[in-house]
Structure formats: structure tokens, C-alpha cells
Design brief:
- This protein has 175 residues and is of the alpha+beta class.
- It has a single domain, classed as Histidine kinase-like ATPase, C-terminal domain (Heat Shock Protein 90).
- 27% of the residues lie in helices and 21% in strands.
- It contains 3 helices and 6 strands, in the order ββααββαββ.
- A 6-stranded antiparallel sheet has the order 1-2-3-4-6-5, covered by helices on one side.
- The radius of gyration is 16 Å and the shape is globular.
- The two termini are 31 Å apart.
Length: 175
């Protein structure tokens, strides 16, 4: 399941929904940058998650990331946001998702944290195992870990820190 584009009226008078970014009090369309870091705190909502994703990806594009690194970042960020909203916070609008992103020409570092119960990474079933191949979900973590150069889970599985280098390969070079 991915983040859908927000349903909003189109046209000249259409205005994007606003969501406050903690720290600067700015909305997603304004400057949510504090000391070089894009920071967003929002209620568990796919539309807002999509706006956060779009804002971060605009900065990744602005920094000149190549097509493969942009694709990898988009995929991993979308999966991390869906996991936080759907699995972590269980779609509870009272629970928040916090996202921080630092983007340079060479790398993007993104942290996504939810207020859910967390999980143990090693207890997540392998989606490539025979018994899991036909399941409709369960591939998000695999995709995040495949497309990012570095992935760290912390705070009991409630926070993921992902790093993608701006390199020409879709899948990072592994040593």
C-alpha cells in the first residue's frame, strides 16, 4: 500500500491543506527547515504523509540527485511513512509521525518515527520465504533495506534512520 496523492480540488482557488511543522511553526508548503534540517510533525494521515514525502523529494531533486537515487529515496521514504502511519500508529489520528531529513548534494538522511508500540526487526517474517510469497503486505522493510545505503532501527523499532548516497546505481553497492 502506498501513499496516495491527496484528494484536493484542482484549479486556481485550490489551496493545499496545511500542517504545522514543529519548531518553526511553518506549514508544509512554507519553510520547515531548521538549521539545514527539514522537520515535520503530523497526525497519522496518508494525505499529510504524501505532502511530507513530496516536500523532501523536491529538496532531493533540488540538490541534483540522479534518477536512480531519487527513485530509491522515494520508494524507501514512502514505505517508511506507510509503516509509521499504518503499522506503527495503527492509523490513529491522535498519534503523530515525526520526520527529519537532511539533504546535501552527496547524500540524504531521513529519520521517521512513530508513537506506536515498536517492533523487533528480527521478528519480522521474511517476505521472500515460500510461505510469504502470496501475502499482500510485508515487503516494505525489505525494500527500505535494499534501496538505502544504510538503515538503522532504534527506539524499540519506532524510529528508522535511512541514508542514501547520490550514486548512479538503483541498488547500493555492497561490499
Amino acid at each position: 500500500m502506498g501513499l496516495a496523492k491527496p484528494n484536493r480540488p484542482q484549479g486556481r482557488d485550490a489551496r493545499p491543506a496545511r500542517s504545522k511543522a514543529k519548531g518553526g511553526g511553518s506549514d508544509l508548503n512554507g519553510s520547515a527547515k531548521v538549521n539545514g534540517t527539514l522537520r515535520f510533525e503530523f497526525q497519522s494521515n496518508f494525505d499529510t504523509g504524501c505532502e511530507v514525502q513530496e516536500r523532501i523529494l523536491r529538496e532531493v531533486e533540488r540538490q541534483g540527485f540522479n534518477t536512480n537515487s531519487l527513485f530509491a529515496t522515494r520508494l524507501a521514504l514512502e514505505e517508511a511513512l506507510v509503516n509509521a502511519i499504518k503499522h506503527g500508529n495503527k492509523l490513529d489520528p491522535k498519534k503523530k509521525v515525526i520526520v527529519e531529513a537532511r539533504v546535501t548534494r552527496d547524500r540524504v538522511e531521513i529519520e521517521v518515527e512513530d508513537e506506536g508500540p515498536g517492533f523487533v526487526r528480527t521478528s519480522v517474517p521474511d517476505p521472500t520465504a515460500e510461505e510469504n510469497l502470496c501475502k499482500c503486505s510485508g515487503r516494505g522493510i525489505l525494500l527500505i533495506e535494499a534501496y538505502m545505503n544504510s538503515v538503522d532501527w532504534s527506539r524499540g523499532g519506532r524510529r528508522v534512520r535511512m541514508v542514501r548516497l547520490n550514486e548512479p546505481h538503483e541498488l547500493p553497492e555492497r561490499s
